[in-house]
Input
Amino acid sequence: MNTSFYNGVAGVKTQQFGIDTWSDNIANVNTYGFKANLPEFSTQFSQVLNSAQNSPTSDDMGLGVKVQGTSLDLAQGELIDSDSNFDTAINGNGWYGFKNGNQNYFTKLGSFNKDADGNLVNENGEYLLGTTNAALKPTNVSQSKLESFGQAYTSDGLQNPKVFTVDSKQDIPLGDVNNQTKINLPDFLYIPANPTKNITFGANLNTEVESEIDPTTNQEVAISSDHFTTGLTNQDGSKSILDMTFTKQFPEQDTGSLWNGEFKILKDVGQKQSDVSYDPTQYFSYPNSNTLYQIFDDQTGTLSFNGTGALTNADIPSLSNDGIPITLSFGTPLDSTIPNSGYNGMTAIKGLGSETKFVSNDGKDEGILEKYEIESNGNIKANFSNGTSSSVGKIAIYHFQNEGGLQKINSNMFTASQNSGKAFFYTKNGLNVNGNSIMTGKLEDSNVQTSVAMTELIIIQKAFDASAKSITTSDEMIKNAINMKK
Output
């Protein structure tokens, strides 16, 4: 009777622990990043009645139940949509790392914000850990550019913002797992202009050009020319113009056509003054225009085409845009071993007339930060007004040999323990990688399933009631045994 009494007491205490655990899980059903605790029980020491030496069976009697502990349910919670630019969720295993003082914490909750200094932090102000682009550094810009970013009034008066620059790196490998730092995202990020150095141009030249006899030379010459222009970016971010004029040579060739090309690099220097005589070798102005251009370079060349209009040779001069050399490409001259050669740039196909087919150059305007976005590989990309982008940092995803051994310190924050092992990164081709992708605009919800939690709670409640009943039954039996003496 005493054994059953104490077994009932142990059962009540233990099942109460189970009820408390599942109640906590249910209470956190809407807590982002929460991982459910699963209560685990084990039997108390057994009392052996007969040993196996004297009986074909070993008879023992349990002495109640005790709390074994809790295990961590690592199932992924539902991914919920979010409208925050810095809300993310890990698609699979892995943990975000945060730093508070000298202590690192790990969580599934990927909700970040920028603090007053531009660092990515969670709602508690703890710093998100990752790798920063080493090329991110302060830069100097003109006063007018500083004013365009916006000035702030402080106790010391009007203050200019701190401006940073970065290169065009698109991916940042993670550093050492023990050397991850806070990620800083400047409010004012600037990329200087990239001057044009390479131009690829394609057009069709109008072969149906009329000619006349030049009375001064008595030579047949074309009446009109084909004219094209394209923009260039200068080193200081200003614009220039590449002006190209192509004139067909006469008399016509039986096997194709030959064209003279004149190439001018022009820069707008303001309005043309009507009472000023300008040196035509230094300045240029289009007909019916009052805009004056300075001539940075003026060169000539020739283009040859066969009877079908394919480019067979391009004699292109070297060009210079205020000291910046420019490589001009008109496509690949005809070569039977190269597919589409002769037609992938300049052509002179009869019946098509004069038209531009394509133009591209590697020049870029100066860029001002428009927004940040997080990519699936963890890179935090800065998008600029000139259409370029650059990764300024990468969010680190940590992994553990035994994730179930992490020690929970609150509803969704954990620390490493001896049971979990030390944090590590996956590696690929000798570089540290995150291993799993990051989904932007998502948050991982609690992994508690209400239906399962309520079912477990009902089962444990019934076990609690049964244990309590065994206590009252044992109590009645003890009373009956005492009353037998009377």
